[in-house]
Amino acid sequence: MPLIDPTRSLLLVIDVQVRLMPVIAEGAAVIANTGRLTTAARLLDVPVLVTEQNAGGLGPTVPELAPEPGTAFPKMSFGAARAPGFFDRLPDDRDCVVTGCEAHICVLQTVLGLLEAGRRVTVVADAVGSRKIENRDAGLARMAANGAEIVTTEMVVFEWLGTARHPRFREVVRLIK
């Protein structure tokens, strides 16, 4: 597989919501790493799509990651790929870099749907979470077994930058130090 190219990437943030995150194992790290990726994406002109699962029950996206008002993609199906209009929000030429919760439910089902649709999918292991670590690990293993690449936040950021000569290098590197 080729490097993660910022001109072909879309950051997909799945269901990092206020009523869910307090019960996610290592939830603070998931929020922090997703925040790093979201900020880097915006600095490097990588589009960001945020989903919200049953927002009436789980609340909105956490304030640290809140998308522009009215831009979150609402869904009731666990896999976003099953939600009407989801693929309309994904440009055809973009690979998906995926973060969010829960790794073994909504992230897994979304990733499997993207793979089934022929999309290249990269899942950021240190930016996905579940209530139990073993569920997260099982979800990541199943995604990998079905063709998703499993990476870390730093891998994505440095591949998006490509070079220490990138004009935004210092700004972006500050996010991970």
Description:
With 177 residues, this protein is of the alpha/beta class. It has a single domain (6-173), classed as Isochorismatase-like (Rossmann fold). The protein is 35% helix and 19% strand. The chain has 6 helices and 6 strands, in the order E-H-E-H-E-E-H-E-H-E-H-H. It has helices at residues 27-43, 55-58, 103-116, 133-145, 153-161, 169-173, and strands at 9-14, 48-53, 73-75, 95-101, 121-129, 149-151. The chain has a 6-stranded parallel β-sheet with strand order 3-2-1-4-5-6. Helix 1 runs parallel beside helix 5 (153-161) and helix 3 runs parallel beside helix 4. The longest helix is centred in the first third of the chain and has 17 residues, at 27-43. It is globular and about 45 Å long. It starts with 8 loop residues before the first strand and ends with a helix.
What would a concise description of this structure say?
This protein is an alpha/beta fold. The protein is 35% helix and 19% strand. A six-stranded parallel sheet has the order 3-2-1-4-5-6.
> In CATH's first tier, which class applies?
Alpha Beta
Strand order of the largest sheet: 3-2-1-4-5-6
* C-alpha geometry: globular
What are the secondary-structure elements, in order, as H or E? EHEHEEHEHEHH
CATH topology heading: Rossmann fold
The helical percent reads 25-40%
Major sheet, described briefly? Answer: 6 strands, parallel
Number of helices: 6
> Quaternary status of these chains?
single chain
What's the CATH architecture name? 3-Layer(aba) Sandwich
Q: List low-pLDDT spans.
A: none
Q: How many domains in all?
A: 1
Beta-strand percent range: 15-25%
| Average of per-residue pLDDT values | 95
